[in-house]
Design goal:
The chain is α/β, with parallel strands linked by helices and 443 residues long. The protein is built from 19 helices and 8 strands. The chain folds into 4 domains: 2-75, 2-Layer Sandwich (GMP Synthetase, Chain A, domain 3); 122-269, Rossmann fold, CATH 3.40.50; 274-329; 350-442, DnaA protein, C-terminal DNA-binding domain (Chromosomal Replication Initiator Protein Dnaa, Chain: A), CATH 1.10.1750. The strands form 2 sheets. A 5-stranded parallel sheet has the order 5-6-7-4-8, with helices on both faces. A 3-stranded mixed sheet has the order 1-2-3, covered by helices on one side.
Length: 443
């Protein structure tokens, strides 16, 4: 097949680790018009390969005399079709169950080894590890909720990867709530609900369902899922859910299902703190063979908060620009990439506000960070902390770190300036002027 020939040529052109990570997972298929469709685990994977390696793939096609072949990318679609009866099967003991599993296309990078553990997600990680290894320390049911890009899917993929690799006889079903609904509707239309019930009640050892908040208002699906959970929980099977909301926050949810979703451990993944963000950036930079100095890692950690996918997009953007220019990343490159991806608001940090205030009051950075208690220094320092608290969502400790202070000093500074604004028109005027300049300059 043409794709196999292309892969053989790519293996000699692309570094071994990059080939293993980005090329090996791709599946190629020639369609009727002679063009080549490459399928990958998800849209991000396909977009990255297209941006990074499409030129190499087209070059190999030309070398093979197939330069007329157009290449396109598509996300792998999970198949519900049963395996052909004629396909050879491995022999099994009579007591071993027939393994029939339905899984989403698993991202090869979403494993436990690649997940960065911090205070924000430690409990969720431990719970998923227990579910993957069938340990009873957290029970048989886990519910993880958190915002977009917090790592819920990463952990779910990691559980599936671990089970598939270490206990392949486990009957695992991994899907989204939307897919569950679509499959149930299909079962109703085709009069095959018996098969649907058998699949998720009798032929299931582990059930992983993502985005259960999308079941809001879907009465029939809620009823079927509640019935399924009763059967699985009575048999001691493992179940895991993810959602952007906790069970009590999901609207239009049957109270019976709400109770069952709340049966086991409920844990929340919070946005990573500064130190965890630094570790994530360092890990992802190393993954992309990107050299980032500590000051650049710190700058990114200050400015990219919350969505880890967005953080990865920034890393990919920096890597692409550095490779294009043939240089190592510097502050200007990082700042420009961050601006392009996140917009101007992504640039502001406690350090930038500190530098801005130093310039406005004719002070040096060292003076603002010093232990001086002179009013000419303490007042601008307090103003800096107040504005950082007002214009960023940084933790108090991160604001204090920019000025060599602890979080209690920041609390005192914010309270002091707030009081002065209320009582002193001159102070209020200064703060309003500085705040306006700051917004025009950075926001």
């Amino acid at each position: 097949m043409i794709w196999q020939s292309v892969k053989e040529k790519l293996s000699s052109k692309i570094p071994k680790n990059a080939y293993s990570l980005w090329i090996s997972p791709l599946n190629g298929q020639e369609v009727e018009d002679g063009n080549l469709v490459l399928t990958g685990p998800d849209s991000f994977f396909c977009n990255w390969v297209s941006d990074k390696y499409l030129a190499d793939i087209q070059s190999c096609l030309k070398e093979l005399g197939r330069g007329d072949v157009a290449v396109s990318f598509a996300e792998s679609a999970p198949s519900l079709a049963p395996e052909p009866v004629s396909k050879p099967r491995q022999m099994r003991l009579p007591t071993m169950p027939v393994v029939r599993q339905f899984t989403k296309a698993l991202n090869p990078r979403y494993t436990f080894d690649e997940f960065m553990v911090g205070n924000c997600n430690m409990l969720a990680h431990s719970a998923c590890d227990a579910i993957a290894n069938d340990r009873d320390e957290v029970g048989k049911a886990v519910y993880i909720n958190g915002g977009t890009g917090m790592g819920k899917s990463h952990l779910t993929h990691a559980v599936a990867h671990h089970i598939v690799n270490h206990a392949p006889s486990t009957r695992l079903h991994y899907l989204t709530a939307q897919q569950l609904t679509a499959e149930m509707v299909k079962g109703i239309k085709t009069n095959t609900m018996v098969n649907f019930k058998d699949k998720y009640q009798k032929d299931c050892d582990v059930l992983l369902i993502e985005d259960v908040h999308t079941l809001s208002g879907r009465t029939k699906t809620q009823t079927e899922l509640a019935e399924t959970l009763d059967v699985l929980m009575e048999c001691g099977k493992r179940v895991m859910f993810t959602s952007s909301k906790s069970p009590r926050e999901i609207d239009n949810l049957d109270e019976g299902l709400r109770s069952r979703l709340s049966y086991g451990l409920i844990t929340t993944i919070n946005p990573p703190g500064f130190n965890t963000r630094q570790k994530i950036i360092q890990r992802k930079a190393a993954h992309f063979d990107l050299v980032l100095h500590d000051n650049l890692v710190g700058y990114l950690a200050e400015n990219v908060k919350g969505d880890i996918r967005q953080l990865e997009s920034v890393i990919v953007g920096i890597k692409a620009q550095a490779a294009l220019l043939g240089v190592n990343p510097d502050f200007d490159m990082v700042k420009e990439t961050l601006c392009n991806i996140m917009g101007q608001q992504g640039q502001i940090s406690a350090e930038m506000i500190r530098d801005f205030i130093a310039g406005q009051y004719n002070l040096t950075i060292n003076e603002l960070q010093s232990k001086s208690r002179k009013r000419l220094v303490t007042f601008p320092r307090q103003v800096c902390m107040y504005l950082a608290r007002k214009h960023t969502e940084l933790p108090l400790a991160d604001i204090g770190r920019a000025l060599n202070r602890d979080h209690s000093t920041v609390v005192h500074a914010v309270r002091t300036i707030t009081t002065k604004i209320a009582r002193d028109g001159s102070t209020r005027g200064q703060i309003e002027l500085l705040s306006d300049k700051l917004e025009k300059k950075f926001l």
